[in-house]
Amino acid sequence: MHVPDGFIDAPVSVATGAVAAAAVAVSLRGARRELAGAAQGSGTGAERTAPLAGLVAAFIFAVQMLNFPVAAGTSGHLLGGALAAILVGPYTGVLCVSVVLLMQGVLFADGGLTALGVNITDMAIVTTVVAYALFRGLVKVLPRRRRSITVASFVAALVSVPAAAVAFTALYALGGTADVPIGKVFTAMVGVHVLIGIGEAAITALTVGAVIAVRPDLVYGARGLTAPLELRTSPLTAPAGEPAAVPAALADEPTAVPTAAAPRRSVRRVWLAGLAAAVVCAGGLSYYASASPDGLEKVAHDQGIDAKAKDHATKDSPLADYSVKDITDPRLAGGLAGIIGVGATLAAGTGVFLVLRRRRSAGPGEAAAPAAERPTPEQV
């Protein structure tokens, strides 16, 4: 659903650019809290949560290269807003998808540069907000089980895609450059993107379910799903060799159960597995992706939305159209471009989130963690 240059006029493009900038600014503040909360809540160190968020951005980039057929002559691909929001939080999710869209627009000529605000608003903000709001609502009413997280992920992702199609239709109604009946645009966009949403839902549910199966503590949307380690102690401590004297008033009271801090666990294996999956998707499986136009491209061609489309400003870049220039073997050219994209997105995303974490740690008025709370060499 990458909107190219020329679909939306300048005033609406500027307005959505302002909306996108404001949303990114708010998300930068919210992501600091989410990354700090992940470090405190799961035992994952502050220095490790940022690479995990960067990995989510890289994984979304890689899976977006896997277009899947949804109808005759039409394909779809992951948008990623629901997946990012559930794995790392809604604010961090907006930033993850925004980083992906920026890399795609600048390096791969995918999505117009003047339409970057439109794409961030539609693919990063709308999908994340809609998906996470629905996800949280479902989690509250479903049984507190791991399967409920997967089911809620499926439904949230499914709805987020046609929601983005509705948002695009609204933007086109405000600033479309071609004279096309909005009713036809709405029907065509929502119809095909409901089908694409099924693929989005399957990918999201499978990915979230896989992570929950091995490390539920790393899934933002699954916080509180697993019970923390409990250490049962007596309310009174007696001298060695003597039985504890319990007052009659406390004889029928339940034993106090203080909660111990969750042990720190390495995320290296999860990070390496996620990176390997991203490299395989972008560097290998992408060669077998559907070559049919995606939902927006198909609708734009059929309805005449692309009448005033403009060439991308970086159409002659070395990586345009996800293929390394001057390499004649299409499999090698596409695979290498995908791997470069994964690396660039991983570096950009991780860099952004590392800066956020450091600013959070060194923020004004915030004291350093007490020595007792700092990780020991054995924990690292």
Automatic annotation (TrEMBL):
Residues annotated as transmembrane: 48-66, 78-103, 115-139, 151-174, 186-214, 270-289, 332-356
Membrane topology per record: Multi-pass membrane protein
CC per GO annotation: plasma membrane
Keyword terms of this UniProt record: Cell membrane, Membrane, Transmembrane, Transmembrane helix, Transport
Gene3D superfamilies: 1.10.1760.20
Top-level taxon of the source organism: Bacteria
GO biological process: transition metal ion transport
Protein name stated in the entry: Cobalt ABC transporter permease
Location of the protein in the cell: Cell membrane
Signal peptide span: none
Alphabetical list of Pfam families matching this protein: CbiM, PDGLE
Species annotation: Streptomyces sioyaensis
Domain PDGLE: 268-358
